[in-house]
Design goal:
single chain, about 220 residues, Rossmann fold, 2 domains, three-stranded parallel β-sheet, two-stranded parallel ribbon, 10 helices, 5 strands, elongated, disordered C terminus
Length: about 220
């Protein structure tokens, strides 16, 4: 594949942290797959020591398709996954017992939590969105209450947040946001587990990610 000079620099980068910032369709996935090929073929990195993450299943499939002609049969040995799927795999691998809640069941649980919190004037989607936003910023229920002290609406959402989490915990359920939060918690607090995956995947490549921030 023909790469321009900037793409070549990113594809040939070896150690440390490298961020590639570009517009959609500029060839980020191509650069990433070429870099994986370089790591394996030029630097002798084992395919099993490379982790490629992206945000959507379609993007993960695109990575697999582009990597196949670069590494041939070795491509299947590289772990390519969505961020959520990787978190699910890691938690299960570490013996965490849970099932995923989503769709209709998740909405039923949120509505019950809203009812218990006395929330009648807000949509289910809005409440779920606020809870999701908080979790994506690693904001606990207690921190949520402190952040929105004096805001009656947000305090109600905090109560729904707490009830929703308690119900999931009781039923050993996690939603997609929990996958991220619990994986972060495990890797942050358990040195043995963190070092295990640092050793397993010394080369981590993220094709695309999303940053969500709370503005107080």
């Amino acid at each position: 594949m023909n790469l321009n000079e900037q793409q070549k620099r990113a594809a040939n980068f070896l150690n440390g942290i490298c961020a590639v910032i570009s517009v959609p369709g500029a060839g980020k996935t191509t650069v990433m797959t070429q870099r994986i090929g370089t790591l394996v073929k030029k630097h002798g990195v084992a395919p099993e020591n490379i982790l490629g993450l992206t945000f959507t299943r379609n993007a993960a499939d695109a990575m697999r398709q582009k990597l196949s002609p670069v590494l041939d049969e070795l491509a299947s040995r590289v772990m390519l996954s969505t961020i959520h799927s990787f978190c699910f795999w890691l938690l299960k691998s570490e013996g965490v017992v849970f099932e995923i809640v989503s769709g209709k069941e998740q909405l039923v649980m949120i509505r019950k939590a809203m009812k218990d919190a006395g929330i009648k004037d807000l949509s289910t989607g809005m409440v779920l969105s606020e809870i999701s936003l908080a979790k994506n910023n690693l904001i606990s229920v207690e921190e949520f209450r402190d952040l929105y002290e004096g805001d009656k609406t947000m305090q109600k959402i905090a109560t729904a947040y707490e009830a929703y989490d308690a119900e999931k915990k009781k039923k050993m359920l996690m939603d997609f946001d929990d996958l991220l939060c619990q994986t972060h918690k495990l890797l942050s607090e358990n040195t043995v587990v963190r070092e295990k995956y640092q050793s397993t995947f010394p080369h981590l490549l993220c094709d695309e990610f999303q940053v969500r921030r709370v503005v107080a």
